[in-house]
Amino acid sequence: MPHRSATEAASPVPDAVEHVDVLIVGAGLSGIGVGASLTRTLPHKSFVILEGRGSSGGTWDLFRYPGIRSDSDLTTFGYDFKPWRQREAIADGAQILEYLRETVQENDLEGRIRYHHRVVGAAWSSETARWTVTVERTDTGEELLFSAGWLFSAGGYYNYAHGHTPHFEGRDRFQGRIVHPQHWPEDLDWTGKRVVVIGSGATAVTLVPSMADEAAHVTMLQRTPTYVMPIPREDRLALRLRRRFGDERGHALARRKNILKQRAIWGFCQRFPGAARRTIRRFNEERLPAGFPVDEHFNPPYDPWDQRLCAVPDGDLFRAIRTGDASVVTDRIVTFTETGILLESGRELEADVIVTATGLTIQLLGGLDLTVDGRPVDVTDSVAYRGMMLSGVPNFAMAIGYTNSSWTLKIGLVCEYFCRLLTHMDEHGQDAVRAVADPGMETRPLLDFGAGYVQRALESMPRQGTAAPWLMSMDYFQDVRTLRRGPVVDEHLEFAVAGSGARA
């Protein structure tokens, strides 16, 4: 079947097209949350979830590296409507995946998910007030079309196909195995082998203690240190609250407690960075061997929470260092060699396995092409409205969670506002809405976050403003006031009915 662009397929809409009120892209944490919110709040709305892979769960199904876990507590990383019932607050990937698939079953979403459906492009028609979405079946190569009143991009913000791996001189010379955590091979055996993990982020600090028990030795090789905080794997107060008040009420109370705790820690780090740095250093020093060079390996050049803090449950990374099963080297790579890695200091790290835990590649909106009335959309010309819509793009929503707290807290509030907006439009007979930004409005990068994977992609992302509703808020309590309790409509939204081309 010859390929048709989304623009060519936009109008008229063929009879064979499946029509839905909302088309959700992605069956991971965010997409499942959107689907459950529609089912629970607007059961009369029709929707489907398109998933390019063959299974649900998103990140938690894709990533299979040893020790994969959340670095946020599941009381807040989970959904507000579904209590987390496991003992562990910091859960591993298998537990999170089970939780997500339970949510799918409990909200009758399985029949709404279309697997192996990769969205290629989407074209908006103001005449029909609908999106026509071109989809490729990744298992058969067949091309399909969907028609939707709303398009909701819930696929996160990174490329599922490719992780970030910088150029390493001499890589082809290395005679051992090189792997990236995003594509962990099932046949990799590191038992009794020397492992070097390149990186210092959440993935690296997870991999090192998880591999240390079976490997001969694991070295975490970092160019720049990261703040690493030991946290309890179990939340004892949350467990007591659930025993005392039951799962539903206990979950709500524990969630509120943890939201306040997260915000307090972040606020303390922002207001008193020097004191925060000293506090984190003290926690590290207490758990590391006597005489360990803490300032060399765990004292970053930036302030706490300029990048995300790495959490290590029950201090497992520090325990692996204390036992001698793991070590940390802070240096720069000159070249890979046949047997390891040569560093600028002149030291050579011998390795049988090298893991490039070097980060993600951001790909906003899953890489899909958008057109509005035949004109291609350049997202870099758009400004984010309430952190979930793009200026000038009608009936389009996206899911981007918090960078300074649990991702899902923001997604839950976005879903609430989305359902409120749909209800408002139904009550007023409106078919389309777009956010309109002042052309002269001051803007800045979409995310105020120093992580390398974010900085590498900012030029390809939309912008944000300097004040609400154009500000990409990372404040949960502010978002509760605006997204949950505030007015649905403001002067920045322009409504229309199908075919009128006029404001409603």
What's the CATH H-level superfamily name of the largest domain?
Answer: FAD/NAD(P)-binding domain
Tally the helices: what do you get? 12
Shape: globular
The CATH class of the largest domain turns out to be: Alpha Beta
Low-confidence runs: 1-15
Please estimate the helix content. 25-40%
Mean model confidence by pLDDT: 91
Tally of separate domains: 2
CATH domain topology of the largest domain: FAD/NAD(P)-binding domain
What proportion strand?
15-25%
- Terminal residue distance: 40 Å
Q: What is the level-2 CATH architecture name of the largest domain?
A: 3-Layer(bba) Sandwich
Brief summary:
By secondary structure, this protein is an alpha/beta fold.
What would your notes on this structure say?
The protein has 504 residues and is α/β, with parallel strands linked by helices. The protein has two domains: 18-161 and 361-496, FAD/NAD(P)-binding domain; 171-233 and 288-356, FAD/NAD(P)-binding domain (3-Layer(bba) Sandwich). The protein has twelve helices and 25 strands. It has helices at residues 29-41, 59-62, 74-77, 93-106, 202-212, 236-271, 273-287, 294-297, 316-322, 407-427, 452-455, 476-484, and strands at residues 18-25, 47-51, 113-115, 117-125, 130-137, 143-153, 177-179, 194-198, 217-222, 228-231, 310-313, 326-330, 333-336, 340-343, 348-350, 353-356, 369-372, 375-376, 384-385, 389-390, 396-398, 432-435, 444-445, 463-464, 493-496. Strands 1, 2, 3, 4, 5, 6, 17, 18 and 21 form a nine-stranded mixed beta sheet that branches. The chain is globular. The two termini are 40 Å apart. Mean pLDDT is 91; it is low at 1-15.
